[in-house]
Amino acid sequence: MGDLSAKDYPVTGAGLGLRRGFLPRLTDMKSDAVDFMEVAPENWIGIGGRFGRQFRALTERFPFTCHGLSLSLGSPAALDIDFIKQIKAFLDEHQIRYFSEHLSYCSDDKGHLYDLMPIPFTEEAVDYVAARIRVVQDILERPIAVEHVSYYAAPGQQMAEVDFINAVLQSAQCNLLLDVNNIYVNSVNFDYDPYDFLNRIAGEKAVYVHIAGHYEEAPDLRVDTHGSAVIEPVWDLLQAAYARFGVMPTLLERDFNFPPMPELLAEVDRIRRIQSEAST
After folding, report:
1. DSSP code string of 14-56
2. pLDDT digits (tens, 9 = 90+) for 136-149
3. Which of 46, 74, 105, 217 has a CA that sits 20 to 30 A from residue 31's CA?
4. pTM, to two decimals
5. How far is CA 180 from CA 154, 171, 239, 242, in A?
């Protein structure tokens, strides 16, 4: 479960997150348009009928990863063991290449909060969430990656964000899903240097990268919406990540405000161009 070399990446190239909103357009997409795809298993477990058939057709054509939404790794509530077992069955059934989750929580003892809440950056929280990640890995019978999230408050903070993330990765012996848009958003909201963060995070543990657009609420407030095109400073961070850690598989996320498919695929192609340039 340790560091990854290039040959160990679960996927390669440039990918696109599968959203049901553009599923009909993807079924006719050329097989070389993207190199891999990603889904949230919560949106597809138990889905049958037309959507289930379309999804199966895509998993037979493209390599897939899964990015979970609701394991709630930092929650005070107990892990949902039955749900984790459902995820394992889904990963096995569709031959999913890798599973990741958010380093956050989205539920408490009373139910789901329907948002990704920041885990307090403390040593106690490191131990707590790392233990829960180890349980998840044991049940899934595979290592997982955790994604550092965008956040808008840091309650009870005792450590720097990047030190907290690195400590969790080390203690849990899990891997990283590196999100360059989240780095940029948090750097604006909390006034830090995104390149310093990138240099300090344990990027050698990254299994792949996320890139996305966001919303500018104010000059000092960005909201991680995944609802617009990627902006130039975030593309610049992707280039810097490749320069720092080598070319990594990279996936474009888009959750709403879907543009015509050629526009989405143009962003995927831009990932490929940056990868190609970084490889020369």
Report:
1. EEEE--GGGHHHHTTS-TTS-SEEEE-GGGTTT--HHHHHHHH
2. 999 999 999 999 99
3. 46
4. 0.93
5. 19, 23, 10, 11
